[in-house]
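Good morning,

Attaching, inline, the backbone tokens for the sequence recovery test we're adding to the shared suite. The designed sequence is right after.
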């Protein structure tokens, strides 16, 4: 019997123990516990292991709400209390900032968080026919596997979507193209829920009738996607309202397509926008840049404050959508958008001068853009990050090479029960 005492959590939410000079990462273990474990991957200096039994339980442990936790790979931290999850994410962020960027913030913000359950307004569900399990499976992938979890509901999806899972399983099992439908993308707006079916073959007449009946009975709009995301087209009903979400504090409505990037957690996104604008402090007449602007999630609230803001984004489709949202909200006088490759050093070097900037890059971060700030210093930078490692790298450039101070950092718990760490940081000129 292999025993270990859990000292901490790693960035994936696994328990960390030291056993005979090796670091052991144990799935499902909580800090302070004594556990029995079984290794499934061994290396000279570390092992990965599965929890077998808890011998001494931690006060941090919480009973998972989902009966599929441990099998489904969608969540990794449901066995931990919410406050422990957030503390672990903060520790991951602080460790990355110091060990990668050699920077420490002057102030840590209180974590931004919202509902722990039913929060996902976006999801990508896998589909697979498995006759041994009764036909079609619809859900997230199993942990450490490419198989689809055999699940009938999901606690982090809104209830009306979670309840669709068994009905989707029945629907797909009845279609002629059931072996050619690998994915369903869920997008929820203020007035409509859209399901995008990834189809590798055209539905026949009977399939089309079943799809229409399902949409009518379940109160959703179905789209079909035959190739890449841009190929998605509405199927039924054709008169549904557009997808949108609200930022009521700024009187902004943002429309989006079902395959466009949006934050998965609309409630926490509202809090994030409020925090970002509080740190940025946009004033009437100021000239501000919003880099990686997407649909205008930050751009339009900044414009509503009276600043002149230029939103920049590499995806021309999103830029067009953002321009449409500026028009929808009557903000074209203060907010405009351009397509710019912000990963290209030359393109970044040719950008105009701004007083302040907000950055919300993808996981790769914004190192080329950040380097270009050396030639046109900004008074204030707010950086929204979805990866602590690239935030830490870019923070090192701003602080050590360009003389900014890392004034504030905080965790944004956009994805409760997962190890994903979203964060926000403020840089000022020293």
């Amino acid at each position: 019997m292999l025993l270990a005492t859990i000292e901490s959590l790693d960035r994936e939410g696994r328990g960390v123990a030291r056993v005979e000079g090796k670091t052991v990462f144990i799935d499902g273990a909580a800090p302070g516990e004594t556990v029995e474990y079984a290794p499934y991957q061994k290396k000279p200096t570390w092992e990965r292991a599965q929890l077998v039994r808890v011998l001494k339980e931690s006060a941090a442990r919480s009973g998972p709400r989902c009966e599929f936790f441990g099998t489904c790979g969608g969540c990794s931290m449901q066995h931990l209390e919410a406050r422990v999850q957030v503390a672990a994410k903060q520790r991951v962020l602080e460790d990355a900032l110091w060990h990668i960027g050699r920077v420490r913030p002057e102030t840590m913000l209180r974590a931004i968080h919202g509902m722990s359950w039913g929060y996902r307004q976006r999801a990508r569900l896998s589909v697979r026919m498995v006759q041994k399990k009764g036909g079609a499976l619809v859900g997230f992938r199993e942990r450490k596997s490419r198989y689809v979890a055999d699940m009938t509901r999901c606690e982090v999806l809104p209830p009306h979507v979670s309840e669709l899972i068994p009905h989707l399983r029945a629907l797909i099992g009845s279609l002629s193209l059931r072996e050619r439908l690998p994915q369903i993308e869920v997008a929820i707006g203020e007035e409509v829920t859209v399901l995008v079916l990834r189809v590798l073959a055209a539905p026949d007449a009977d399939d089309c009738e079943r799809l229409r009946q399902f949409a009518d009975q379940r109160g959703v709009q179905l789209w079909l996607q035959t190739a890449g995301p841009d190929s998605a087209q509405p199927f039924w009903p054709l008169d549904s309202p557009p997808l949108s979400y609200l930022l009521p504090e700024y009187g902004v409505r943002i429309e989006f397509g079902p395959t466009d990037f949006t934050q998965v957690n609309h409630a926490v996104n509202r809090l994030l926008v409020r925090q970002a604008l509080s740190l940025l402090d946009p004033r009437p007449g100021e000239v501000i840049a919003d880099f990686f602007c997407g649909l205008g999630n930050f751009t339009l609230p900044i414009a509503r404050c009276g600043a002149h803001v230029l939103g920049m984004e590499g995806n021309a489709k999103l830029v067009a959508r953002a321009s449409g949202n500026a028009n929808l909200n009557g903000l074209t006088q203060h907010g405009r958008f351009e397509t710019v490759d912000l990963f290209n050093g030359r393109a970044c070097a040719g950008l105009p001068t701004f007083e302040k900037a907000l950055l919300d890059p993808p996981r790769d971060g914004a190192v080329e853009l950040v380097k270009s700030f050396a030639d046109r210093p900004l008074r204030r930078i707010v950086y929204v990050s979805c990866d602590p490692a690239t935030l830490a790298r870019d923070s090192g450039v701003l602080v050590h090479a360009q003389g900014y101070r890392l004034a504030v950092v905080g965790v944004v718990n956009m994805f409760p029960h997962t190890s994903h760490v979203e964060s926000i940081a403020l840089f000022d000129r020293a």
